[in-house]
Amino acid sequence: MGKQAPDIFLFNPTCEYAVANGHPSWQPNLLLQKMEEDLGTLPLFLARPHDVVLVKKLPPPEFPEQLKKAGLIMPQFIKTEDAIKNKAFIDSPKSRLLPWGWSPAAHKLLSPLKSSCSAEFTSSPVAEWRSEYKQIYSKKFALEILKDVLPLLPGGAILPPHLIPETCTTRQELEILINKWGKLMVKAPWSSSGRGLQRVTTTPVAPKVWEKLLGIINEQGFAMAEPYLNKILDMALQFRIKNGKVTYLGISRFFTDKKGQYQGNFLNGWPVSTEQQATDFLESFIEILIPRLSMVVEGSLLAEYYEGVFGIDTLLFQDSQDLLRINPCLEINVRQNMGLLSLKLEKLLAPGKKALFKIFFQKEKSFYSFQKEMETRYPLVVSNNKIKSGFFPLTPTDENYLFGAYILADI
After folding, report:
1. What are the start-end ranges of the E strands in 171-307?
2. Which of 46, 274, 339, 396 is a good FRET partner for 324, with 20 to 30 A between their CA atoms?
């Protein structure tokens, strides 16, 4: 039996901004470049041992030893700048190119590797970028999916018609919605992980807030506005789509800060403190939702323009009568995502153990310093290569790493 061709992974979580910009030479700002560099090994948890993860810097030699404690076998890490110039690597057979997300910039970067990919990849819709693909990455596209799926769901359990998000292209349109809803969450159409958000919770709206709101419209052409809901729980339904057919992969449970920015995921279920009524409501509703959501996506442009994994953010909230309701499609992440990663990380835990998966960043503090503190406070306990409790770093660390990812188990 011949050697299996590897998949090639790349961590580029700023892909939505690259899609919004549209230029193949687009680059994120320096802080986001640093984030992509420091967290560049994260796709290893999605990869197989014979796969390749392209990174901006190679992890230190002790990094594989750390991960062996949880029974992990490393894929191969290759510096991106070397991979796209090394003729032997360029010519070697590959299965698929799997960046975190596609964009014109990702296509340009990875283009030298395409000629040696499998026919299955080169014939797929993600093998080349087309300008019309931009729309499926927008929150406006997610709104269209929402409007199509709502009529298929039980009315008393879902977002009512007067709370459906809207697109805005002017200050006047935003003012109408402020009068209608009182409090808003305004979002850049192409953004991720809670960036590009602006809350409007007090009136009159401050000049600096108007500056940000109109900045979104000026930069991306329009803004997405939605009512500021009484959120109970955040979750994301994970799917894969291939040849127009959707497969459900599982539910990931995430949490955000007050500004709506992504903070991390709960692993192996909701925290013990979560109200049973909320989780029971969710579980019964999701059984109804998944086949209908899958059907709507299969009939959409996503099925035509994309192949790969994607996540649909779903929000459980309490309405003005204190009834539980669901927004079944708040956003669609047309890419690999932290929720998908969290499903893989759950397999590292000992049976019955819960954990948090979090991304670290603190100004003026390295991930190395943070790791040393956490290892003292929460010593790692591993049994049979499964994490039972404590702090477990998922990414490399030294004094030069500002960003990191980790699991904090059963505390």
Report:
1. 184-187, 197-200, 223-227, 230-242, 245-256, 262-267
2. 339
Q: Give the whole-angstrom CA distance, residue 103 versus residue 181.
A: 35
CA distance 100 to 97: 10
Integer Cα distance of 305 and 219 in angstroms: 25
Task: Name all contacts of 87-92 with Cβ < 8 Å and 24+ positions apart.
Answer: 89/113, 90/115, 90/116, 91/116, 92/116
Q: Measured between alpha carbons, how far is residue 256 from residues 100, 193, 253, 268, 295 in Å?
A: 21, 9, 11, 18, 29
Token duo for residue 274: 């979560």
How big is the CA angle at 16 (ends 212 and 28), to the nearest 5 degrees?
75
How many residues are given for the chain?
411
Residue where the block lists tokens 């961590």:
11
Query: pLDDT by residue (tens digit) across 256-304?
Result: 887 788 899 999 999 888 899 999 999 899 999 999 999 999 999 999 9
Quick one: tokens of 51? Answer: 């796969």
**How would you class 19 by CB atoms within 10 Å of its CB: exposed for 0-12, middle for 13-18, buried for 19 or more?**
buried
- Determine the 3-state secondary structure of 128 from DSSP: coil
Do β-strands 52-55 and 76-79 pair in parallel, antiparallel, or remain unpaired?
parallel
Instruction: State pLDDT tens for residues 325-383.
Output: 999 999 999 999 999 999 999 999 999 999 999 999 998 899 999 999 999 999 999 99
pTM exceeds cut of 0.90: yes
- Chain centroid offset of residue 333 CA: 6
8-10, strands of its sheet edge to edge: 76-79, 52-55, 8-10, 97-99
Look-up of token digits 């729309």 = 135
Q: What angle do CA 357, 362, 367 make, to 5 degrees?
A: 65
Q: How far apart are CA 126 and CA 103, in angstroms?
A: 10
In terms of phi and psi (left: phi > 0; alpha: psi -120 to 50; beta: otherwise), the region of 180 is alpha
Tokens representing 324? 């539980």
**Among the listed residues 339, 310, 338, 316, the one whose alpha carbon sits nearest the alpha carbon of residue 328:** 316
What's the rounded Cα separation, in Å, for the pair 122 and 132?
A: 19
Cα gap 52→10, rounded to integer Å: 9
